[in-house]
Amino acid sequence: MSESLATVSYIGATILFILCLGGLSNAETSRRGNLYGVIGMTIAVLATVFGPHVTAAGIPWIVGAIVVGASVGLYLARAVQMTQMPELVAFMHSMVGLAAMLVGFANYIDPGAAAHASGAEKAIHEMEIYIGILIGAVTFSGSVIAFGKLSGKIGGKPLLLPGRHFLNLAGLLVVIYFGREFLNAPSVNVGMTSLIVMTVIALLFGIHMVMAIGGADMPVVVSMLNSYSGWAAAATGFMLSNDLLIVVGALVGSSGAILSYIMCRAMNRNFFSVIAGGFGTGGGAPAAAAGASSEPAGEVVPVGAVETAEMLREAKNVIIVPGYGMAVAQAQHTVFEITKFLREKGVNVRFGIHPVAGRMPGHMNVLLAEAKVPYDIVFEMDELNEDFPSTDVAMVIGANDIVNPAAQDDPTSPIAGMPVLEVWKAKTSIVMKRSMASGYAGVDNPLFYKENNRMLFGDAKKMLDEVLTALRA
């Protein structure tokens, strides 16, 4: 393939990637957006493999690597449950970071690249390598820790080391110092020492950064690491002088940064405060009522599946608020069956989605789409909050922090000011939980004690199956 044809192919792939991002911004066009992305990536890979920069001798190695990678990807796509998507995304981000690191080291020791660079060109190229490995290392180790937290292998409680900000600052200064040594290195061996020291510090920084972020901020971490992986890819593009990789990496990096900002706004959190140390615990402590007193400000009123079914049957307007508990119980399909039954009986059923529901952006939307819930009855928080006062039943399935009235009523709460779904304003709210444990943020929820609230205890899938059976009886 000639240079001009490869360039045209890259331009076409870039356009398809932009269309992919545009399609993914809306649930109804997401499938088409994914298709654009697949086609664009196929064109990009073919243009690279058969382009002028790959020799015939290298093609079998590349094809072999593609077969191995594609096989792993197909296995993960089939084996990973929808509830495991957040940790899978974190794993993918770690692979991008690892790739950036390996490409950087390989590019530095490549005798062909060194022979064709001198003076300012050599300095710029080495700066690209240094920064690329730095971003890649932070992305890799940070994503590994995020994977551990999201999969439950590492606790969600933030690890806040004494003087952690000074540790980070000291690490930054050391990285800058060795960057200067790297650029002035008289030989590859000396430069490699600086690269290795910087890589170790960057890996430790990635671990420290994500360990200091609490469970409640993990959705922001996922989008943040998505941004990091994009910038790592862009840095790799600079190292390899690959324009498409630069553009695609910048697209992913910038969109991930924008998403992180949106997520922080949805949680009323400052992005830098998230990085400095988030709030949240991995396990939930028993929830108490709002206020300083340890005594409940009301009684918890439990309800059974039959009573829940009766309230749903008599309702005219129902809003369902899904959370991570629904994902863990894999109850989305039963939720759809209940929704379908109620709508056939003339009940107006809608879903309210909080931007940080679940463990990653869009987690609940994906689960509901998998269960065939119609897109036109799934609404964002801002679109539904004004409708709760006219809602007969607000049903909360495995959510906690995103329906916590303390965000509005208690200025001392860690989630004070965080926009939440105002389910307590409905005529009746029903909260489905296994126990009275607090949510992922470890924050007590006074919703449980509201006079108009009912608690449906038990596994979400089991209890919803009983509700569905009672509805059909």
Can you walk through the features of this model?
This protein is an alpha/beta fold. Helices cover 59% and strands 7% of the residues. The chain has helices at 3-24, 30-49, 59-79, 85-109, 111-115, 119-150, 164-183, 188-211, 218-240, 243-266, 271-276, 305-314, 324-329, 332-344, 363-370, 381-384, 406-409, 460-472, and strands at 317-322, 348-353, 378-380, 393-397, 428-433, 453-457. It has a 6-stranded parallel sheet with strand order 3-2-1-4-5-6. Strand 4, helix 17 and strand 5 form a beta-alpha-beta unit. Helix 1 packs antiparallel against helix 2 (30-49) and helix 12 (305-314) packs across helix 18 (460-472). The longest helix is centred in the first third of the chain and has 32 residues, at 119-150. The protein is globular and about 80 Å long. The termini are far apart. The model is unreliable at 282-296 (pLDDT under 50).
